[in-house]
User: Which sequence fits this backbone?
């Protein structure tokens, strides 16, 4: 699927971008600090580790949250395999924190969960975690959610996740269910979110997470975690065992 690209020559996409510059459709967010496609490609030519980024697009995204209209910046990223896409939603409070600020953002790196995030499944705590993170980010002067759809089911994908749920119905916990279906306990990789944060200009962050593996993975990819902000949510009868397993077998701080 992946073609090798001549990074030195502008592609059709680059031409399109030149004819339709960022500032034309996004005039009130300065382009400084936001690397454009051409910049990303030329960076990739010098640094093989940066080749993951092929495309980025940005816009304003008004959302409804608990009856309020909130204005966010939406930055979409796509890596070279095309199947890995990610979105960063940035909230800047009261216009005080601009792109040149040295403020340290409050960040949630959220693994996509179709059943939880969209349909509010009670078998996991993803929806509650996402809502809590969104609330804290909206209440902060500088907050970012990096949303990773390809992290579905701790990176094993939707089909295997549902297979693992079926195995849990037979009595296994979330760790043993993955092992029983031949899937890794956690297949998530944090290189892409680390690159996204760096490209947005934030190498130091305050991370909202209870998962020490996430902290160390982001740190391994060059992100400095200056503070860990725990995200405590209330367990339900459906996810009580799931949360206990995350605490007891995956070292989550719950
Ligand atoms: Zn979930």
Assistant:
């Amino acid at each position: 699927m992946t073609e090798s690209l001549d990074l030195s020559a502008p592609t059709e996409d680059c031409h399109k971008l030149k004819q339709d510059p960022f500032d034309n459709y996004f005039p009130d967010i300065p382009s400084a600090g936001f690397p454009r496609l051409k910049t990303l490609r030329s960076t990739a030519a010098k640094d093989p580790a940066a080749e993951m980024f092929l495309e980025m697009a940005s816009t304003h995204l008004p959302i409804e949250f608990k009856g309020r209209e909130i204005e966010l910046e939406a930055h979409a990223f796509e890596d070279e395999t095309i199947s890995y896409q990610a979105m960063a939603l940035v909230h800047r409070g009261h216009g005080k924190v601009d792109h040149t600020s040295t403020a340290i953002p409050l960040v949630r790196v959220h693994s996509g969960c179709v059943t939880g995030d969209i349909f509010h499944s009670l078998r996991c705590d993803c929806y509650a975690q996402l809502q809590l993170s969104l609330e804290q980010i909206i209440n902060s002067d500088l907050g970012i959610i990096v949303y990773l759809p390809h992290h579905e089911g701790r990176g094993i994908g939707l089909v295997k996740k549902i297979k693992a749920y079926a195995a849990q119905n037979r009595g296994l916990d979330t760790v043993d269910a993955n092992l029983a279906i031949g899937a890794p306990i956690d297949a998530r990789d944090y290189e892409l979110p680390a690159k996204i944060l760096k490209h947005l200009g934030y190498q130091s962050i305050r991370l909202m997470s209870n998962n020490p593996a996430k902290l160390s993975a982001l740190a391994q990819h060059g992100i400095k975690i200056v503070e860990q902000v725990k995200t405590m949510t209330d367990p339900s009868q459906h996810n009580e065992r799931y949360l206990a397993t995350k605490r007891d077998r995956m070292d989550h701080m719950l």
Notes: The beta strands are 53-65, 68-79, 85-92, 106-111, 142-148, 204-208, 224-229.
